[in-house]
């Protein structure tokens, strides 16, 4: 079965016909040619497909495209604006927070989500007590653990995120 | 000696050249290449371990809208290869669970997956063996082991040395089956136009992929083009194409003019692209009262596949690490009905150095001396394996310098001597080593384009190593220009030939070719060339390998905490000091070394592909159940280097750094865990149950 939907992808309205089995990830990559989000597992276990949907981070392989009709989707490509790359993206380059780069588009989207979550005072599993969370190494590591990096760029990723959040 | 470059761009801490593209998600990996109306392939994989396909009913699949082709052993084109892994769909035989037995090509991924699910395959089954010891045929001695090393060695009389020794170690060490799991799944995109094949292949070697595919399909390599500018990791598994590439090219051949795309599922990554096989090593050490080694023995028993032999060179590190007059090593294989193993980061040294370096720690404890002192005492003057002098060997400096920077001597050497808030705390050390290879058959082109710009071409691959950056730095110094005057082209068989991004040989092999071409260019055209002036050059022969033993070294230090009640283990600190020759780019080099140590940590604590002996397959084939180190598992990991160039190796004075970081890490962690708890874990991964026995 097919469905016609509209997604606002990286600031642009995109109409697309999808199979109702099509994931948001496949709609972006195979139907719309938006290849910034990557498919590392298709099971919600690696984070490489992470995008922001209406501002919140989502693993797009676990989301059906039909269920996202009308949503605002931001990929790593859309994080940049007229002034160039997002500060998180610049910090990733400066801290060499990547090697092969395959997990990176998901990492940077996730990082932008993490910074917003911490700012909004959302606790994580390592937040102590009821105080507002602070952007410590432990908080960043915990919150970024859904984004695997087989190249082992974690120290750079943590440094980059803390630098932007400081 | 090689004529050394004067470092200018080399050694600079410049940002990764492809970083800006990658943070935007704009680097095109194999699957991301824009194509018109591509088709999607989905395979049907065997659900039995051993037997024959009795019948395939594809009628329901073929009836689906959008299905273009169903491939089975009955209609598959004949292949010209005897390679048991690559002979895809050539017979009804099933050799392991998960083998490709059919494939569907359709207009969308959803239809392809649904149609593959609708193909009905029936089997005749046979009894199978999937674990070492369960196979009635017994063990088999390979003719040689990976990288061409001899299977067995025997010098002096090890048994007599053990019998006469003041101190001995005789223990078995087991390393788990582990899967490379690069984040980018293995991917092939194939298009036939006329008699020409173009493949986008996620590959560590475009020329290697071309050679293999041309061979399998009986083609002139000149008719095959392989393109791969970016690779999402590989760690060995993308060193050479596997069954997925073959079936995709096969399907494309039957659908000329159409592009066929196939990316393996994560589950398939556990059976179709290789892995590090499970193995057990019996290590014997014999020592004089002061700890001087009189004998070293390593006997390896490793699992491999019946359809294609893979013998990891596990014992070779023990042949050259420490001096000892009596030494015996052997490799034996259990040939099983399991998927074909292959290279995984530091094949041989990674498991080998876990066993050897844990055994050395055990010996130090028995002799009652510091494990660093024990290693220093057994430092060889020449390579014990070949009798050649070392081109350079700074292991002792790594141990001493690393110990100072880590704070090694703060420790009370007695096990179980430190407790913090319910955690037992320990320090451990282990040595690292990896050969300094440089491959033959590399060439490069240097061309002056205009306006002080030079195009440098070589068919190299960057799987995350930093080749895009490091090769430009090398080219800049070889031409005597700034790095930003270099336009580098890699990742395509239309460029000059290049060897694999593997064996930590890439930078040395490709860099030497680039330097040769740049020097020839300057000789011919001087400092004021005309646009389009160009020189092609082959890298010179690696003469150092004839006269010297060529290796990199390192020392790794771990701080480990084991919870006294639960046995949970944490690694708050890892420190590595390496003898890696001259470092081309400190920023990308540090990432490589830290990345290797991270994978070593993951090997030590997490990774274990569990064999389901009843069903004959990996029971945990996904990233939810096969745990690789996540961000929260990694605390402080630091890597430094001595920075002493080895001028015999290549014009850069560099040694490879891609693999050495994973060697010794697991031993340093196991040794630290022993220091923390008094419990010696000889089987990886080091999980909490092993402290609670
Ligand atoms: S591809 Fe979505 S989490 Fe892995
Ligand atoms: S940079 Fe390679 S997986 Fe993260």
Automatic annotation (TrEMBL), chain A:
CDD domains associated with the record: fer2
GO molecular function: 2 iron, 2 sulfur cluster binding; metal ion binding; oxidoreductase activity, acting on the aldehyde or oxo group of donors
2Fe-2S ferredoxin-type domain residues: 3-79
Pfam families given in the database record: Fer2, Fer2_2
Top-level taxonomic group: Bacteria
Keyword tags: 2Fe-2S, Iron, Iron-sulfur, Metal-binding, Oxidoreductase
Database matches in SUPFAM superfamilies: 2Fe-2S ferredoxin-like, CO dehydrogenase ISP C-domain like
Keyword Iron part of the UniProt annotation: yes
Pathway: Alkaloid degradation; nicotine degradation
Statement: the UniProt record of this protein carries the keyword Heme: no
UniProt-recorded name of the protein: Periplasmic aromatic aldehyde oxidoreductase, iron-sulfur subunit YagT
Organism whose genome encodes this protein: Actinokineospora spheciospongiae
TrEMBL record, chain B:
UniProt cross-references to SMART domains, sorted A to Z: Ald_Xan_dh_C (SM01008)
Gene3D superfamilies listed in its UniProt record: Aldehyde oxidase/xanthine dehydrogenase, a/b hammerhead (3.90.1170.50), Aldehyde oxidase/xanthine dehydrogenase, molybdopterin binding domain (3.30.365.10)
Protein keywords: Molybdenum, Oxidoreductase
Domain Aldehyde oxidase/xanthine dehydrogenase a/b hammerhead: 24-127
Single GO term (MF): iron ion binding
Stated name of the protein: Periplasmic aromatic aldehyde oxidoreductase, molybdenum binding subunit YagR
């Amino acid at each position: 079965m097919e469905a016609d939907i509209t997604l606002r992808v990286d600031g642009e309205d995109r109409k697309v016909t999808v199979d109702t089995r099509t994931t948001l990830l496949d709609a972006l990559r195979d139907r719309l040619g938006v290849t910034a989000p990557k498919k590392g597992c298709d099971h919600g276990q690696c984070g490489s497909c992470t995008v922001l949907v209406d501002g919140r981070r989502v693993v797009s392989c676990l989301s059906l495209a039909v269920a996202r009709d009308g949503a605002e989707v931001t990929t790593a490509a859309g994080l940049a604006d007229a002034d160039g790359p997002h500060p998180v993206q610049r910090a990733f380059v400066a801290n060499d927070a990547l090697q092969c780069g395959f997990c990176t588009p998901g990492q940077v989207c996730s990082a932008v989500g993490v910074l917003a979550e911490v700012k909004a005072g959302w606790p994580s599993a390592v937040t102590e007590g009821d105080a507002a969370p602070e952007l410590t190494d432990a908080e960043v590591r915990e919150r970024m653990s859904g984004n695997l990096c087989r190249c082992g760029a974690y120290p750079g990723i943590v440094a980059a995120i803390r630098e932007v959040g400081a | 000696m090689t004529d050394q470059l004067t470092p200018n761009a080399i050694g600079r801490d410049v940002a990764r050249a492809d970083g800006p593209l990658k943070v935007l998600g704009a680097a095109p990996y194999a699957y991301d290449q824009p194509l018109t109306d591509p088709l999607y392939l989905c395979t049907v994989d065997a659900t039995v371990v051993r037997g024959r396909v009795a019948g395939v009913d594809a009628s329901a699949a073929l009836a689906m809208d959008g299905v273009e082709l169903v491939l089975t052993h009955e209609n598959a084109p004949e292949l010209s290869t005897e390679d048991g892994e690559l002979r895809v769909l050539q017979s009804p035989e099933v050799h392991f669970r998960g083998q490709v037995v059919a494939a569907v090509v359709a207009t969308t991924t959803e239809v392809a997956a649904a149609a593959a699910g609708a193909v009905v395959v029936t089997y005749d089954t046979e009894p199978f063996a999937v674990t070492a010891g369960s196979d009635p045929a017994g063990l088999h001695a390979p003719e040689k082991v990976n990288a061409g090393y001899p299977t067995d060695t025997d010098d002096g009389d090890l048994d007599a040395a053990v019998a006469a020794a003041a101190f001995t170690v005789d223990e078995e060490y087991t390393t788990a089956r582990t899967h490379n799991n690069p984040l980018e799944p293995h991917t092939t995109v194939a298009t036939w136009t006329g008699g020409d094949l173009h493949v986008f292949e996620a590959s560590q070697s475009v020329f290697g992929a071309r050679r293999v595919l041309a061979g399998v399909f009986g083609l002139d390599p000149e008719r095959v083009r392989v393109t791969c500018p970016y690779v999402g990791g590989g760690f060995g598994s993308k060193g050479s194409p596997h069954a997925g590439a073959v079936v995709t090219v096969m399907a494309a051949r039957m659908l000329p003019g159409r592009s066929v795309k196939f990316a393996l599922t994560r589950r398939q990554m556990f059976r179709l692209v290789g892995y590090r096989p499970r193995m057990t090593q019996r290590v014997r050490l014999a020592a004089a009262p002061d700890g001087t080694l009189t004998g070293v023995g390593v006997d390896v028993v490793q699992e491999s596949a019946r359809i294609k032999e893979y013998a990891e060179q596990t014992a070779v590190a023990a042949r050259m690490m420490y001096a000892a007059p009596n030494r015996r090593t052997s490799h034996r294989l259990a040939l099983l009905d399991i998927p074909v193993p292959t290279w995984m980061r530091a094949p041989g040294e990674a498991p080998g150095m876990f066993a050897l370096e844990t055994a050395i720690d055990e010996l130090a404890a028995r002799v009652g001396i510091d494990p660093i002192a024990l290693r220093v005492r057994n430092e060889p003057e020449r390579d014990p394996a070949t009798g050649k002098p070392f081109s350079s060997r700074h292991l002792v400096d790594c141990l001493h310098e690393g110990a100072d920077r880590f704070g090694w001597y703060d420790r009370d050497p007695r096990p179980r001597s430190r407790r913090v808030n319910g955690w037992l705390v320990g320090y451990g050390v282990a040595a690292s080593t990896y050969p300094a290879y440089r491959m033959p058959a590399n060439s490069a082109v240097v061309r002056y384009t205009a306006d002080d710009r030079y195009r440098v071409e070589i068919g190299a691959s960057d799987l995350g190593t930093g080749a895009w950056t490091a090769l430009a730095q090398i080219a800049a110094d070889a031409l005597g220009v700034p790095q930003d005057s270099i336009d580098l082209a890699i990742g395509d068989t239309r460029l000059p030939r290049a060897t694999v991004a593997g064996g930590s040989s890439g930078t040395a092999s490709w860099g030497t070719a680039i330097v040769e071409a740049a020097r020839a260019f300057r000789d011919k055209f001087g400092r004021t060339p005309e646009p389009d002036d160009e020189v092609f050059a082959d890298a010179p022969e690696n003469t150092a390998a004839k006269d010297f033993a060529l290796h990199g070294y390192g020392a790794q230090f771990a701080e480990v905490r084991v919870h006294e009640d639960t046995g949970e283990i944490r690694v708050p600190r890892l420190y590595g000091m390496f003898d890696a020759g001259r470092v081309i780019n400190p920023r990308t080099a540090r990432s490589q070394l830290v990345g290797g140590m991270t994978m070593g940590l993951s090997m030590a604590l997490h990774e274990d592909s569990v064999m389901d002996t009843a069903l004959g397959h990996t029971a945990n084939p996904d990233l939810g159940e096969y745990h690789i180190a996540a961000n929260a598992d990694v605390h402080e990991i630091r890597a430094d280097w001595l920075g002493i160039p080895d001028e015999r190796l290549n014009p850069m004075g560099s040694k490879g750094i891609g693999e050495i970081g994973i060697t010794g890490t697991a031993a340093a962690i196991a040794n630290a865990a022993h220091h923390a708890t008094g419990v010696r874990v000889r089987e990886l991964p080091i999980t909490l149950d092993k402290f609670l026995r």
